[in-house]
Amino acid sequence: MTRTIIIAGAGGVGKTTLSAALGAAIALGGKRTLVLTIDPAKRLADALGVSELTDTPTEIPTQTYGPHGMWAAMLDASASWEAIIHRYADPEVGARLLANPYFRAIADRFPAAQSYAAGERMAEYIESKQFDVVVVDTPPSGGGIDFFRAPAMANDLISGKLLKWLTGANLPGRGFIYRFTAKPILRIADAVLGGPMLSEVTDFLLDIRTMYDTISVRSRTIEGYLKEATTLVATTADPTPIHETRRFFSELDGIDIDPAAIIFNRKLPESWISQANKPIRGVQDPALRAKAKANLRAWAAEARRQADAADEMSARFHVPLYSVAWTTPAPQSMEELATLITDSGIVADLGL
Amino acid sequence: MLIFVSGKGGTGKSAVAAATAIDFARRGHRVLAIDMASATGLAAHLRVPGLDYEPQEVRPGLFALKMTRSQALDEYLKVQLHVPKSLPTHQITAALSVLADTAPGVREIISIGKPIAESRSGDWEVVVVDSPSLGQFQSYLGAPQAIADLVPTGNMLRLASRMRDILLDEELTRIHLVTAPTELPILETQETIATIARERLAPVPKVIFNRVLEPSGMSRSDLKHLGDGPLREAATLQLDLELEQDAWSKKLAHVIELPYLFGVLTPGEVAEQLADDIGGRV
User: Fold this and answer.
1) Which of B152, B151, B123, B129 minimizes the C-alpha distance to B141?
2) Which residues of A touch B241 (CB under 8 A)?
3) Which residue, of A185, A205, B16, B18, has the greatest Cβ tally within 10 A?
4) CATH classification of B2-278 is 3.40.50.300, yes or no?
5) Does B235 sit within 8 Å of A193, measured CB to CB?
6) Is A10 on the interface with B (CB under 8 A)?
7) Cβ-count burial of A35 within 10 angstroms (0-12 exposed, 13-18 middle, 19+ buried)?
8) How far apart are CA A202 and CA A163, in angstroms?
9) What chain B residue is nearest to A111 in terms of C-alpha separation?
10) What's the pLDDT tens digit per position in B133-163?
11) Which of A192, A193, A240 has the CB atom closest to B10's CB atom?
């Protein structure tokens, strides 16, 4: 069975890099591993050895990553939605949907649509049985929380909650649209807002509605995979990520998902804290001694702030916390990335 | 004046937005700060437990509010779109609420309508908006155009084109992008500036560098004199970061550099400290 690891976390904490690093570390341990990234920076794509990732898994072109290799793929939300339409919609409806401006706009811009597409891709890779482990980097919207909610949201969209309101009826057929436009309230609304917006949205929803049965089964399957997956929350000691981490834990709890661990990125060594107040021996030049000491004190204060934040988080959330060291310059190769994450101990503890 | 403060996640944009508002208030202006990015902590930076949709005075001359979608929607319809009282407003509200979940630009136009309306209300000299991070911010700025593409006629279109005129007016609107002088934030900020210029969404953004390290005065050749422990490790980290910072800060013109604040400070202390550093310079 394929093991799935999902990395959630606020923007700017290094989520994509951590996903790739974790994937490399697991691959080195001999598992056939796929990393599904969302929007890798150029440096990461370079480190992975593929300048152009697509949503077809690409094998990382090197022998370094264990006996079974490492693959990477990047989400293309528009392409994924087209694939979903081709797979689940009646051909005539599918053609109309693909030509509908709302469909294009929603696939490209509706945050939950990107998240749903990511979930769908994840499910395909799990079901392909080609991989022992799939590591999923989450889309940035809602700091990754939308990824977990997207199946339910997609279900709401097509189950007709909105339609029911717009049309005042259940299970409308195509002919219903004409009665809809005759509905006085919505005619007034369209007149006030200034266009046939509600009518067009209704048209779109009616088409999407025909995919209800398949998408509804599918979104429950994806939800099942999400619940079985190992969810890790990435953070740093900065105030926004800490705030977001709190929000994740409470919101994930609301949808019955328990994160397995926190990955604390860019951690400074705690040994600096105690050393900062000790007298310095062995530095001859007094000017250099003063500068180096002032510098250590400043960074030790940062290390202290990080240590406090880490203690507070592990006490609050009752999960293990793995620290990934702040290294400079930024890791340039997958080997360096893999070492970082292996040193944190998380790969071994997760049984990977 | 309407100032939108945005930036890549993790660069300290809420702190800089709060500091900008504090700085204007300290210099005697009547200021409104708006929290438009629900996940971040403008309230904490202003030393209040929370904010509401009604402006509250958080220090002399400085008021703050937090956007909530349902109240913004209500205000958009009644105050901005002038939906006549004779019409069934609650049903039109519900219709627009459905649209906000599906049609592109609707949610964004409702949200960005609030700061624009406040800046034109005559109640404030300066409105500072703690905006969402870069990607989402661009779709807010692009909302008036998205609406124009969607709606051929009517009040919503007229309102959207008025908003677009205000957003594009250099006398009225400023965009401040906060970044750290490191690779990913700089690259993403460059892309955002290019998009804003290409799509003519707003005046050319001004860039604020935050978390800029002060040079330690040490050099690489000093490292070998520092032994093997934390003293040398911390010096190595500092020098590596200085090198990275020097390389990346050259790649983007900026109006001001705000310092990296070390150690255990509360969000309120951070904002005060940054306001000292801004000192009228933005």
Assistant:
1) B129
2) 328
3) B18
4) yes
5) no
6) yes
7) buried
8) 7
9) B136
10) 888 899 899 989 888 877 777 788 889 999 9
11) A240
Tell me whether 0.95 is exceeded by the ipTM: no
Omega prior to B49 cis, within 30 of 0:
no
Nearest to B222 among A10, A288, A296 (CB): A288
A295 touches chain B (CB under 8 A): yes
pLDDT tens profile A194-227: 767 776 777 777 787 777 778 888 889 999 999 9
Cβ-contact A294, A283 below 8 angstroms: no
Q: Is A203 on the interface with B (CB under 8 A)?
A: no
Helix (H, G, I), strand (E, B) or coil at B33: strand
Does the distance separating the beta carbons of B83 and A295 come in below 8 Å? Answer: no
Question: Sign (positive/negative) of CA torsion B214, B218, B219, B224?
Answer: negative
- Total Cβ atoms within 10 A of residue B269: 13
Put simply, the answer to whether A193 touches B139 (Cβ < 8 Å) is no
Q: Give the CA count within 13 Å in the CB-facing half-sphere of A129.
A: 1
Question: Which residues, 6 or more positions from B200, have their beta carbon under 8 angstroms from its beta carbon?
Answer: B168
Q: Set out the domains of chain A in order of their start, with CATH numbers.
A: 3-157+220-349 (3.40.50.300)
Average pLDDT, stretch A13-35? 89
| Nearest by CB: A195 against B95, B150, B241 | B150
Look at A41 and B151 and tell me if their CB atoms are within 8 Å: no
Amino acid at residue number B10 = G
B151 with A10: Cβ contact below 8 A: no
For chain B, which residues make up each domain, given as ranges? 2-278
Q: Do A308 and B264 touch (CB under 8 A)?
A: yes
pTM: 0.87
Ranges of residues in chain B with a pLDDT under 50 are none
Query: Angle CA(A281)–CA(A282)–CA(A287) in degrees, nearest 5?
Result: 90
Q: How many CB atoms lie within 10 A of CB A271?
A: 13
- Contacts of residue A198 in chain B, CB cutoff 8 Å? 95, 98-99
Do the Cβ atoms of B264 and A166 come within 8 Å? no
